[in-house]
Design goal:
about 450 residues, alpha/beta, four-stranded mixed sheet
């Protein structure tokens, strides 16, 4: 390594690193990408939380309606059930409906219908028997044909009234609403386990939603890091090769130092995105907590960058180590792929192949942690490179043991070291080949053919 003429010499890597990083931030496209990725990471948690709240907001939906949107002057209540609303529940205190008059007409439904003004609404509550003999309550909100009241306003009002009606009837029946909800929900799902799988699932300290959150967030991080870095390395290497700049650079910088400088520069680039995104995610989640209160629903955590760093210091270190490991492997692959290209069409093909490999890993990262088949989980842990996308999360959720995690790191460190030596041997040869794209078969020949043999053959 100390020999300056060695193919493994890294002399000049610092200069290439500074130059590449500077050029990346001088490039308008990469500056914009840098900002967009940070903002996206920052807003992942709040966006998912708002989406979850919009689907579960029932009782509070009425509170969000603006007063100018309520073109309603009176609600006529006609209740034909034995369950009576509490008076305060129909006053809508603190909402946009507070000024709406509530009246209890003595006429029948048929007498009221046809006489409604365009700002009146009839609240008609009945209990009926379905064809199968099941008794049900029905809440009907009826407006005039030419009503000024919007349909979504009636929907929000109906959801609010239904929820309060259910609470009232549970109370009048002497049943706690939480107990009633448990009884009505029944079985959430049915699953079949082997003895070992059941014990493993029962001992998990993370819920299914939290497992999805970890797997999905880890998948997104890897997709972002690998896609950005690999595309930049491929394009940068190819541009220098085509422009003949690399021939000038190689006078003072060894080939391996040239590609390693680019790799370290992109590692810094994506590392800054992750760090800034993480800090921004903490800030945005804190602000969201101040505005909307602490998140208490699991759905809001499905895709939150912060999720990966709430699993303890050791686990966070494991995640970072896995990201660095798979980054280095794909960076070496990208360096070789870029040096094999000679024109723009070649670069698109190379990027497409690498992107396909990343997408396979991305899908595995999202799906494998949710699988309860222990055989698939253990097999995936030992597949080189692909295991980088799944093993860290599998260890965190206790689907694999510490021994398996160590084996995962050993296997992939060996792969990374092998890729380092392959890159050192092949890159310097490919970067000087001009003309058509070098095929994978020729690259393998370079890997397994020594320089001495090539010289003798020549």
């Amino acid at each position: 390594m100390k020999n300056k003429n060695s193919i493994y010499s890294l002399d000049g890597v610092g200069k290439v690193y500074k130059f590449t990083l500077t050029q990346a931030f001088k490039n308008k496209g990469y500056r914009v990408s840098f900002i967009i990725m940070i903002v996206m990471i920052m807003l992942l948690g709040p966006i998912m939380r708002l989406g979850a709240k919009s689907g579960s907001k029932v009782v509070t939906s009425v509170s969000d309606v603006k007063e100018e949107e309520v073109n309603m002057t009176e609600i006529l209540v006609l209740n034909e059930t034995g369950v009576q609303f509490k008076e305060e529940e129909l006053k809508f205190k603190g909402t946009a409906f507070e000024k709406v008059k509530i009246s209890y007409p003595t006429e029948t439904k048929d007498e009221i219908l046809g006489k409604l003004t365009n700002t009146q609404v009839l609240l008609y509550i009945t209990n009926e028997t379905e064809e199968d003999g099941m008794a049900v309550y029905k809440i009907n909100l009826i407006a005039a044909d030419e009503t000024e009241v919007k349909g979504d306003i009636l929907d929000d009002l109906g959801s609010y009234l239904k929820d309060n009606f259910d609470n009232t009837r549970y109370e009048q029946a002497g049943v706690d609403k939480d107990v009633m909800a448990l009884i009505s929900n029944g079985f959430d799902e049915k699953k079949t386990y082997s003895d070992t799988e059941f014990k493993s699932a029962a001992s998990r300290k993370y819920s299914e939603t939290e497992v999805v959150a970890l797997g999905t967030t880890f998948a997104v991080i890897l997709l972002m890091v690998l896609s950005m870095a690999s595309s930049y390395i491929v394009s940068s290497v190819m541009e220098e090769k085509v422009s003949k700049l690399v021939e000038t650079l190689m006078i003072s910088v060894k080939p391996l130092a040239l590609v390693m400088g680019k790799i370290f520069a992109m590692l810094t680039y994506v590392g800054l995105i992750i760090i800034c995104g993480f800090l921004g995610s903490k800030l945005s989640n804190f602000i969201m907590d101040q505005i909307a209160g602490k998140a208490d629903d699991q759905a809001s955590k499905t895709l939150n960058f912060d999720a990966l760093f709430k699993v303890g210091t050791i686990n966070a270190i494991i995640i970072i180590a896995a990201v660095l490991l798979v980054f280095m492997i794909f960076a070496f692959i990208s360096g070789i792929a870029g040096s094999a290209c000679s024109k723009a069409e070649d670069m698109q093909s190379a990027n497409g192949t690498i992107t396909m490999l990343i997408m396979v890993g991305y899908i595995a990262a999202m799906l494998v942690p949710q699988i309860e088949n222990t055989t698939i989980i253990h097999v995936m842990t030992y597949i080189p490179v692909l295991s980088c996308f799944v093993a860290p999360v599998l260890y965190i959720i206790e689907s694999i043991s510490l021994v398996e995690l160590i084996a995962f790191f050993v296997i992939n460190i060996v792969v990374a070291v092998a890729m380092f030596f392959i890159c050192a041997k092949v890159y310097r040869k490919l970067i000087l080949i001009d003309g058509s794209k070098v095929k994978i078969k020729e690259i393998f020949k370079m890997i397994f053919t020594s320089d001495k043999t090539r010289k003798e053959a020549a």
